[in-house]
Amino acid sequence: MEYLDFELPIKELEDQLQKCMVIGEESDVDVTETCQQIENKLEETRKDIYKNLTAWQRVQLSRHPNRPYTMDYINAICGDTFLELHGDRNVKDDKAMIGGLGKIGDQSYMFIGQQKGYNTKTRQYRNFGMANPEGYRKALRLMKSAEKFGIPVVCFIDTPGAYPGIEAEERGQGEAIARNILEMTRLKVPIIVVIIGEGASGGALGIGVGDKVLMLENTWYSVISPESCSSILWRSWEYKEQAAEALKLTASDMKKQKLVDEIVKEPLGGAHTNREKTFETVRNKISSHFEELKKLSPKELVKTRMEKYASMGVFND
Predict the structure, then answer these.
(1) CB neighbours of residue 285 within 10 Å
(2) Is 0.90 topped by the overall pTM?
(3) Fewer CB within 10 Å: C terminus or N terminus of the chain?
């Protein structure tokens, strides 16, 4: 297990508990009471830390190296029913954007999402979860296929942003994202979006328009990352914590501004501490929201979705 800076008090107590248990096993000393006291202290410390997280600490949790990624969710939710589909039929297959057909129970879904790598080699292979234009065009191709066959779409968002390289701009990065946003507003099948990690800028919006947008508790969704915001405003990354607070990027902030529909609770300590519980929660949320959305006709779906997004950012003096 890897620990973040603010989790070090937990690590110290877990180390103490481990040493206490070793002493009990290797000697005749009864350490049951001492171990129990450390366990109680550990539980209290966990609750104190995770119930009072700052915006920057939630950003750190969203990037935790042990946190599950899109393929982890798809494999856990769909099992061996998932069939990955490749290519945008134009340039190439973008490894940072994955998609394909899978089932939850007897219901088929088109799953789409950004995939990060879990070590140096796979991070390079997946381009750190930063999709090129062909990734967004692949996503749109799959959404259109889902619409053709009446299959609901599920999008998992976890990206530090769309790839900002020259070649991406040459192939129309901005146009590809804008096209996806336009087409998703009028797609005639239910769209459920789940933010499972980082939700940065247009890279997230390119697959982020949905009838229901869910955010896991320790994720963020913003026009810019705290580090980039800090570097623009203060010419330094040192103010990233202040930037995170000012950006109002946490799940509770997004819910308050009515930019997302629901916050999905995570196990204490984050999604990575109990993956199975997290997967089960997300699977149940997708199924329950689909049961609600399938009652609407395609015309009602599009009308409701467009009204939802048209009302965002409207304020009365």
Answers:
(1) 17
(2) yes
(3) C
Please tell me the number of Cα atoms within 13 Å of 306 on its side-chain side.
12
Tokens of 173: 């990065």
CA-closest candidate to residue 223, choices 208, 197, 203: 203
Tens digits of residue pLDDT in 210-258: 999 999 999 999 999 999 999 999 999 899 999 999 999 999 999 999 9
Q: Are 180 and 257 in contact (CB under 8 A)?
A: no
By CB atoms closer than 10 A (0-12, 13-18, 19+), residue 24 is middle
Q: Write phi, then psi, for 312 (nearest 5 degrees).
A: -75, 140
Residues facing residue 69 across a β-bridge? none
Closest CA to 154 of 303, 289, 272, 37: 289
Which run of H or E residues covers position 114?
Answer: strand 107-114
pLDDT per residue over 2-12, tens digit each? 888 899 999 99
CA distances in angstroms from 54 to 57, 226, 261, listed in the order given: 5, 13, 22
The amino acid that residue 70 corresponds to is T
Cβ 95 vs Cβ 125: under 8 Å: yes
